[in-house]
C-alpha cells in the first residue's frame, strides 16, 4: 500500500510539473510586436510623444500589455530620455516641455524621436523613429452684428530653408467641437488652408453647449507626415445653453442612479431579502440550540 | 430496497470509505486539472481578459455559458430535496444528499466562475458598494449567495445525526477526521428536542428553497432576457431556463448515483427501481423542456423578424447548426427515446443517456450565450453583416480555466463523498424501522417523532 502511495505521489509530482511547465511554455511563445510613434503638439504648451505597441493576431491587432518602451535622443540608443510601461491599450505617452523638446532637435530644426520596445518574457524587441518639424495654429472668433459667427484659423509651419515660420498653404485642417468620444465636425471634414495658411468657417448657431453655452472648439492639423498633430483648443461661449430639468437620471427610475432606484423595487427586494435571510438566521439559531442541547446532555 | 436488519449493517454499508487506487487516481487527475486552471488564471490576472477570445462583440464567452451550466445543475438540490420530499416521494430519500452535494459544489463554482469572468476580481466588492438594485446582475449576486447559503444548510443540517454516528462508530480513522466529525456533529445526542429542531428546520428550508431555486435560474435568464438582443429578447426565458435546469440536474444525480452504486456496491440502496423512477422523471422533465424549446424557436422562426432572422438561420442552417442539431438530437431526442423503454431505464443505459444529456446541456448553454452576440441590433451589422474579423473560439486559457472549474466542482463532490455519508443513514433507518442501536439510540428516538 505504501509503495502504491509513493507511486501516486511521484506520479502526481511529475504530472504537475509537466502540466505547469507546458502551460508556461505555451504562454511564453514570444510574439513579434510592432511599435508606432506619434507626435502631438497642444497649442497651450504641452507636447507629447505617444507610443503604441501592438501585435497582429490573425487579422486583428492586439495591444502588447506589460511591455516597457525606452525613448531615446539618438538612433544608436545611447542617450536614453525616459522609460515607461504601456497601459492596457498598449500605449504610453511622454510629456515634453519646450526645453525637453529642444534636446531632440537637430541643426535643421527637425525633431527626431527614437523608441524601442524592451524585450520581455512575452514579446520580442521592436523599434520605431519619427521626425517632425514645428508648426503652430492660432484662431480668431468673430461674431458679426447679424449674429453670424465666424471662425478664422491660421496655420504656420517651420521652413527648414529659411529657418523661419511661414504660412502653411494648402494643408488640411480639421475643425470641430469637442464631445465625449470624438469631434463634432464644423465645416467640411477637412478644410484646406489658403496661401496665407488660413481657413474661415461660418460657425453654426445651434450646437448644444454646457449649462452656460460654452463649447470647446478644436482646430487641428491631424497626423501630418512632416509636422505630426498640432491641436488648438479654446472654450467659447457660442453654444446653446443646455438645461437639465428633464434629466431622467435625476428622478427615481429603472435607469436612475443607485440612489434613485424606484421605491417599489427597494421595498420589494429589501423585504424578500430580510424575510429569507431572517429565516436563515433563525435556522442557524436552531443549530446553536442543537449544540447547546447536546452539550448539556439533555 | 432489500431489508436491513440493524443500524450496524447500515453503518457498515454507508460510512465513508478510503479511496482505492481508482479513487486516488481520479482525485489526482482532478487536482492536476485544477492546478493547470490556476496557472492559466494567473496568466489571466497578469495580462487581463486579453488572454481570452472575448472582444467588444463577443463580450460573454464560455465563462458565462459555464456559469449558466453550473447554476442549472445546482437546481437539482431543490428538485430532490424539496419538491420530491414535500410530495412525499419516499423512494427519493437515498438521493437527497447526493442532490444537495451536487447543488453545493456547483453553486460554489457558479460564483467563482463569475469572478473569473470579471477580469478584475479585486473590484468584486464594488458590486456591493456601488451596485444598483435596478440591475439584474445585482439580483443575481443576491440570489446566488442566498441559494448557496440555503443549500449548505440543507446539506449540513440533515447530516448531523450521521456525523454523530460517524463520531461514535468510526474508530480507525485519523484523529483530525474524528475531531472534524466531533465538531461538525455539534454534540448531537439524538434527543427528541434535537430531532424536533432538525425536522422543523429541514422542512422549513425545503419550502424556502423552492422559490429561491426558481428565482436563481429565472434571474440568471433575466440577465439575458432583459437585454434587447435577438435570441434573448424572450418572455419564455425564465421558465425555459428552469425547465432546462431540472433536466440537467436530474441527469447529474443519475450519473452520480450510478458511479456511487457501482464503486461502493450500493445496489440495495440505489436500486434498479430508483433508476427506473429517475428515468421516468427525466423523460417527463425532458418533454417539458422540449415544449419550451419549441416555443422558444418556433415563433421567431415563423415570423423571421429582422434581427432575429440572421440568428435563427445561423442556428438552424449556418455555422452553429451542427452544434444546435447535435444538442437537440443527442442531448434530448435520443435520451428521451431510450428512456421511454424500461430497458433504457436500467442503470447502465440510463447512466449513458444521462451523460449525453449533461454534455448536451453544456453545449446548449454555449448556444444560448455565444451565437446571439454575433447578431447585435447595430445598423452597420444589419447592412453589412458581422465583420469577417469578428469570431469567437475560446483560447487555451479559457478552456483550461473552464475545464478546471468543472473539475473543481467534481473535486468538491469527490471530497464530500470521501468524508461524508452520501446517503442519509438516519433517514434510511427511520424509513426501514431498524432496530435501535444500543450505542447510538438516535433511530429509536427519531421514530417517535
Task: Please explain how this structure is put together.
Chain A has helices at residues 2-27, 98-102, 263-296, and strands at residues 34-42, 47-57, 60-63, 68-72, 80-85, 91-96, 111-118, 126-132, 135-143, 149-159, 164-167, 172-178, 183-185, 191-192, 198-203, 215-224, 228-236. Chain A is of the alpha+beta class. In chain A, the strands form 3 sheets. In chain A, strands 1, 2, 3, 6, 12, 13, 14, 16 and 17 form a 9-stranded mixed β-sheet that branches. In chain A, a hairpin with a 2-residue loop joins β2 (47-57) and β3 (60-63). Chain A starts with a helix and ends with a helix. The model of chain A has no long low-confidence stretch (mean pLDDT 86). With 449 residues, chain B is mainly alpha-helical. Chain B has helices spanning 7-14, 21-47, 62-74, 76-86, 93-118, 124-130, 136-156, 160-169, 175-184, 192-225, 237-264, 272-303, 309-316, 321-339, 347-373, 379-384, 396-419, 425-432, 442-447. The radius of gyration of chain B is 23 Å and the shape is globular. The chains are: A alpha+beta (298), B mainly alpha (449). The interface between A and B is large, with 48 and 48 residues.
Estimate what percentage of residues of chain A fall within beta strands. Answer: 35-45%
Largest sheet properties of chain A: 9 strands, mixed
Radius of gyration of chain B: 23 Å
- Share of helix among residues of chain A? 10-25%
The count of strands of chain B amounts to 0
CATH class of chain B, named Mainly Alpha
- State the separation between the terminal residues of chain B, measured CA to CA: 23 Å
What pair of chains forms the biggest interface? A-B, 48 and 48 residues
Q: What's the tally of helices of chain A?
A: 3
Which superfamily, in CATH terms, is the homologous superfamily of chain B?
Answer: Formate dehydrogenase/DMSO reductase domain
What spatial form of chain A do the alpha-carbon principal axes imply?
Answer: flat
Question: Which structural class is indicated by helix and strand composition of chain A?
Answer: alpha+beta
CATH superfamily membership of one domain in chain A, which one?
Answer: Immunoglobulins
- In total, the number of strands of chain A is 17
Spans of chain B with pLDDT under 50 lasting ≥5 residues? 441-449
Major sheet description of chain B: none
Overall average pLDDT of chain A: 86
Q: Based on the structure given, which CATH architecture of chain B is correct?
A: Up-down Bundle
- How many structural domains can be distinguished in the coordinates of chain B? 1
How much of the residues of chain B is beta strand, in percent?
under 5%
Helix content of chain B: over 70%
